[in-house]
Amino acid sequence: MKIGITCYPTFGGSGVVATELGHELAKLGHEVHFIAYALPSRLDVFAPRVAYHEVSIPTYPLFPYAPYDLALATRMTDVALHEGLDVMHVHYAIPHAISAHLAREMLAPHPLRVVTTLHGTDVTIVGQDRSYLPITRFGIDRSDAVTAVSEHLRNVTLDVFQPKREIDVIPNFIDPERWAPAAEKTLPNCFAPAGAKTFLHVSNFRPVKRVLDVVEIFDRVRKELPSSVLLMVGDGPERPAAEELCREKGIAGSVHFLGNTPAIEKIMPLADLYVLPSNSESFGLSALEAQSCGVPVLGYQAGGLPEVIENGETGFLRPVGDVDGLAGDALAILTDGGCYREMSRKSRERAIALFNVDALIGKYLAIYERVLASP
Ligand code: GMT
User: What pLDDT is recorded for position 23?
Assistant: First the structure.
């Protein structure tokens, strides 16, 4: 099969899922063409059967905003025609589903099937803005198939858009060999003394991630376990406020802001606990990656997180804002070696059982085959 994939190329989860999916499809012998405005952060352009086509977005003095969606539709048309794409799979509805629909219209009668994967704020925030709601619904209705990354996201989509079509749920996935526990949790000495407990948070530091809660939880735990350290990976608008809060609390020396680093796979297994206190999360891919590394997760009962984290078994979920509760859970588990090992084991086992890449790639392939077989 020849598959086009469009995604946001930045560090966000939707781009990561799209890129990993493309790599896996290529390993299975399919030809995969990425179409984006920049090279997706995890894309390996040297991988066999993977190609990258950049969208160039010309500016013109008349355009206060360059029409990216049109440039993208044109690039999709061009690649579909010259590479013979069967399916165009877009990740994140806006504007990708609309551009793909336009490309298909431009290509007619040459066929191109469009599959849209909904990831989160394309439904829960951006898609609900009155400026985008009707066109998001249109993009969903005109796709040949639509998938959502969790039951929660599917239900919100049905509620908000009342689409005319079915929505399949295909959860995000991990490669358990890549996301694997460390033989020994030893951080470089510059971060922590041997035996210190390590907390980790990875995100784009947007308000939805509640990064100040990460600091609050850590501060409470650190009062009881003073050698603990917190690693904050990523960057975004809330980072200055989080840094300021650390200074105010006098814990800046124990909190390391590492910025956007591609080395997350190396850092994740070294953590003792992963903290993701988002107030809305359609899935929470990083929480899955943590559990696959045997790292239990602290989070809130929000969005799709309860589908990813089994409360009390692979981590702890509390009502949004309950930093005291999560700090108490962290202390309880970190001071009981037997319970910690059990939770760590279950985290990895459940990640492999429910979210293994091999099983879930098959579900995407089945959808491609279904849309290709449809009239
Ligand atoms: O929707 C977003 O906020 C952006 C998107 C992204 O590109 O990071 O994140 C969403 O997609 C991820 C991959 O499917 C999910 O793991 C995230 O939970 C989801 N983010 C939200 O729902 C806030």
Answer: 97
For the CA of 172, the nearest atom of ligand 1: 14
Q: How far apart are the first and last CA of the chain?
A: 18
Question: Residues lining ligand 1, judged by CB closer than 6 Å?
Answer: 8, 12-15, 17, 119-121, 149, 172, 208, 280-285
Please give the pLDDT value at position 200: 97
Going from the Cα of 349 to the center of ligand 1, the distance in angstroms, rounded, reads 24
The closest-lying atom of ligand 1 relative to the alpha carbon of residue 10 is: 7
Helix intervals (H) in the chain:
13-27, 68-83, 96-107, 121-124, 133-142, 151-161, 211-224, 239-249, 264-267, 285-292, 305-308, 323-334, 337-355, 357-373
Atom 23 (ligand 1): residue with closest C-alpha? 281
User: For residue 117, what are its two tokens?
Assistant: 């994967």
User: What separation in Å is there between the alpha carbon of 158 and the centre of ligand 1?
Assistant: 18
Q: Are 95 and 69 in contact (CB under 8 A)?
A: yes
pLDDT of residue 189: 60
The per-residue pLDDT for 262 is: 76
Query: Whose alpha carbon is nearest atom 3 of ligand 1?
Result: 121
Q: Which protein residue has the closest C-alpha to ligand 1 atom 19?
A: 120
Structural domains in the chain, CATH included, are 2-173+356-373 (3.40.50.2000), 198-355 (3.40.50.2000)
Helix (H) or strand (E) holding 36: strand 31-36
Q: Block means of pLDDT (10 residues each) for the chain, length 375 residues? A: 96 91 98 97 93 95 95 98 98 98 97 97 90 96 98 97 95 96 77 85 95 98 96 96 98 95 89 96 97 98 98 98 98 97 98 96 98 93
Beta-carbon contacts of residue 370 (< 8 Å; ≥ 6 apart):
145
CA of 77 to the centre of ligand 1 (A): 27
Nearest-atom index, ligand 1, CA of 124: 22
Cβ-based neighbours of 160, under 8 Å, separated by 6 or more: 123, 127, 128, 133
- What is the 13 CA–ligand 1 centroid distance (Å)? 5
**Can you give the pLDDT at residue 190?**
65
| Ligand 1: centre distance to CA 16 (Å) | 10
Query: CA-CA distance, 79 to 82, in Å (whole number)?
Result: 5
